[in-house]
Structures are given as structure tokens and as C-alpha cells.
Amino acid sequence: MVKAEKHTAVVIVGAGVAGLTVGNFLRRNGIDCIILERRERAYVEARQRAGTLDTRGVRLFRQWGLAEVLDAGPTAEVQGDFFIDGQAMPIEIEEDDNESIFIPQQVLVRRLADIFLREGGEICYEAEVALMDIAGSNPAVRYRDSSGATVLIRCDYVAGCDGDHGITRASIPAGALTRYSYEFKYSWLSVLAAVPGTTSGMAIHTRGLAGLIPRGAEHSRIYLQCPVEDTVAQWPDERVWDELEARVGRSLGRGDILSKEIVELRSVVHDPMRHGRVYLLGDAAHIVPPMSAKGIHLALFDAETFARAVIAQVQDGDPGPLDAYSETCLQHVWNYQAFATWITDLMHNAGDASYEGEFRKQVARAELRRQFESEAANRVFSELTSGIA
Ligand code: APR
Description:
With 389 residues, the chain is an alpha/beta fold. It folds into two domains: 4-74 and 102-180 and 267-339, FAD/NAD(P)-binding domain (3-Layer(bba) Sandwich); 184-266 and 354-387, 2-Layer Sandwich (D-Amino Acid Oxidase, Chain A, domain 2), CATH 3.30.9.10. The chain is 35% helix and 28% strand. Strands 1, 2, 7, 8, 9, 10, 16 and 17 form an eight-stranded mixed β-sheet that branches. It has an eight-stranded mixed β-sheet with strand order 5-4-12-13-14-11-15-18. Strands 3-6 form a two-stranded antiparallel sheet. Helix 9 packs across helix 10 (357-372). The site of adenosine-5-diphosphoribose (APR) has 26 residues, from helix 1 and helix 7.
């Protein structure tokens, strides 16, 4: 039974980076919105995710008056290294050009939530959400809160910021969206280890790609390329450390291994990124492989495009940007899928030739050498070594 009924301009489903950014952008422009999040606050704000905010993201938060989220904290100074066959490659970049920062995603999420709540915004955590009337001009969202009370919110727009497994995209009728996807031929063993996040690096090696990325002051994440058929049971702790050291070409400080999982590398795009008045943002609309470190970038691009479009509609009565939302975002998404596919295959093909053969390995090596001679590409590699998702 519905206990309460409310109205707001935008219901935002999901309190991750996309949802909280949209919420803050809208409220700062006087547009009413409510955020509904399935998980409890403590869980969302402790979840270990990606760690790099690229230059565009840093400038975006400044432009929208949210510079306070950018304090990168004690891990900001971590230097990224890049190894090929155990040899460190020089990465030099013009400081003026590169404003990217290392900031654990959960820290960004916590700060965005703090600001949103401090300024009077409403977030309902532990909300069990259902979408209603999504084809029409008056969509509604019903949710049950942690006390068991059911609330119905009538709204003008729904922003689906609830990730790849959320309820928003799942509520859109089958056949309304086209799903484009690509599975890479290799996976990653992803390991969380209790090793202080002072070292950061990516290594290309005949044995496969390896990464060691800080996750806060106390922890690091290790990535090891592995066949898609591999299981965690094939990777005892000792083998993880031996393999990482072999690929990086030096001994490293070992620590307790806290978790291990096999991550499939894939790219996904849903087209269009809207259905009626329901809009999809961030991971709900697209997935980029973690190698590209561009998941946050795309979530922020969608958030800004959507917020600007709603503001244009509400403040100027201009429906154009909302009508163009999907097209605008998809053009950007496909450009980044192109980058993500290129960098992912390049980094893997240049190492272990058992996937694509020796010819493709030599091509990838030539391409890598060329990249290291270019300043723009150096920036790309510098960001990559500090921020894989
Ligand atoms: N109802 C409400 N909230 C939900 C539901 C649901 N049914 N399902 C999922 N959620 C919440 C999740 O708990 C999460 O807090 O939606 C939020 C989605 O946040 P993210 O997964 O962080 O996705 P997004 O905001 O799009 O950010 C994308 O996050 O993991 C990275 O690679 C990704 O960097 C990219 C960025």
C-alpha cells in the first residue's frame, strides 16, 4: 500500500558517481530531484572502484562550483611506472596539460553525497525501486524504504544512474534498445592486497599484462592478464605474487591477499540511451573495459549532458538538448569505445603472443614505441598507470 505520494522534477535512481553528480548539478540550478539508492550508505561509500579523474573531470567539477570534491588526499603523489619486458619506460608530460588526479571513486562518491545532503538534497538509501508509466509524459517511481513504507514519486524525468545491473534499464520494454557488445579474448585476475598504495605501474610482458594500482593508503589492486577459462582456484596467493614479480621484472613488497576474482573484459553500449522520459546515464548505458580507465569519464559526460538538457528545458523551455541527449552521448561514447578497444588490445597484444600471434605482437610493439615518442600519448599512459578501474 502506498503510504505517501510526492512530486519532483527528476527522480535519480542510483547514488554512484553519475547519480550524485547529476543531483548536485540540478540542485545548484534550482531543479528539484530525489535520489533513490538500493544499498545502504556505508556500503556505497566503502565500495572499492576506479581511481582516476581525468583532466576533463577535474575541470568539470570546478566549472560547476564543486572544486571541494577534488582534494586528492595523501595518495595523490603516487608516481606511475610503465614496464616493458621488465624495463621501465620514461613517461614525461607537460604538467600544464595534465590535471588528472588519483582519487578513489568511493571518496568522490562520499564527498558528492555530503555536499548534496548538506545543501538540503534528499537521498533515500536502501530503497527498493520500481518504475511505472515510463512510456508516458508522467512517469512515476515507487519505492519501499528501509522501514517498509512505500512511497510513490510522480516526476517529469527519470535518470537511470543505477549501473549495469540496475532496475531502470531492466524496466524498458524488450526490443526498445539495441545492445552492442564485444568480449575481449582474455580476462583479468583482479586481486586486492594489503600493500600500501605507494607503487603504481603497468607491465607488458611475454607472460601477459600486469598492473599494480594503489587503492587508498593501505591497499593496492593487482591485475594479471589470464585466459578467460581461468578460475580463482588456479591462482593461489604465492602464484599471484610470483607472477606479478615476473611480469614487472623486480621483487615487490608482498602483503596479505584480501580478495581475488576473475574479471571479464568487455565493451557494451545500449542505443538509444533513453526511452520516453527515462534517460540512461553511466554504467546503466555503457561499459568500457577497465584498461581504458574511462568509466568515470563517460559517467560524468552523461551527467553533464543530461543536467544541461534538463536545465535548458526547465529554465528556457528548450526541449532541443533533451531530444538530442542520446545522440550527443552516444557519439562521445563510441569515440571512447574506439579508444578503449584500441588501448586494451594494444596493451595485451604487445605482451603475450598466445592470443593474437607473433605478427600482431610485433605490430603492437611498433605502435607502443610510436606512442612513447608522442607527448599526447605519454599523457594517456601516465593516466593509465595511475587509474585503471
Ligand atoms: N535501485 C537503486 N539503486 C541501484 C539499483 C536499483 N535497483 N541497482 C543498482 N543501484 C545503485 C548501485 O548500488 C550503485 O550505487 O546504482 C549505483 C550505480 O553506481 P555505479 O555502479 O558507480 O555506476 P555509475 O554511477 O554509472 O558510475 C560509473 O563507476 O564502477 C565505475 O566503471 C564505472 O567508473 C564507472 C563509474
